[in-house]
Amino acid sequence: MPTPPSVEDLQALEQAAHDEGFQRGHAEGLAAGQAEVRRMIVQMEGILDSFTRPLARLDAEVAEALTDLAARIAGSLLGRAYDGDPALLADLVHEALDAVGAGNRDVELRLHPDDFGMLAPHLAGLDGVRLCVDATLGRGELRLHGESVRIDGTLAARLQSVLESTTSHANGRAGDGMP
User: Fold this and answer.
1) How many domains is the chain built from?
2) 74 Cβ partners below 8 Å, 6+ apart?
3) Closest listed residue to residue 119, CA positions, set 96, 143, 87
4) What is the pLDDT of residues 39-69, one digit of tens each?
5) Distance between CA 147 and CA 95 in Å, rounded?
6) Is residue 144 in some structural domain?
7) Tell me, what CATH number does 112's domain have?
8) In this structure, is residue 122 part of a structural domain?
9) pLDDT tens sequence across 143-155
10) What is the pTM of this model?
11) Residue 176 pLDDT grade (very low, low, confident, very high; cuts 50, 70, 90)
12) CA-wise closest residue to 123 among 107, 136, 101, 139
């Protein structure tokens, strides 16, 4: 007949079973806890993303509104400057025509109605240039259309060109475009 285990043997066996159960429970609990932490991190990232997307959209809207405001202010100031000295606008027109080049003079020059009336004496005698009134343009704005060229001399386009030039100079590159 086998000898029954001693009290010490039973206690050692109970402790070993307890330790093994504790280790299994700890490993399962740790894995479950890690899975819960990962789930919470994903949830928090989703919440943060939902906060940053509207802010990025708002940044773009504010930048667009500021650019529009700057163009309106510039337009108001330029309109007054051109009224005081029509030669300033005539110089801008000549700069645009020079950008097209001497060999490409079959172009259409579109101007705001007030600018058209003011500039007509300054632009008389330009060969190959059709002058047109364009009420969609603001004071001090122009568009020049030719067979192979289009120049957008609107304030918004000129302001964008200046902003891009400033940005590219800040980044170490030279910008281009008509200010």
Assistant:
1) 1
2) 155, 159
3) 87
4) 888 888 888 888 777 777 888 888 888 877 8
5) 18
6) yes
7) 3.30.2320.30
8) yes
9) 988 877 888 877 7
10) 0.51
11) very low
12) 107
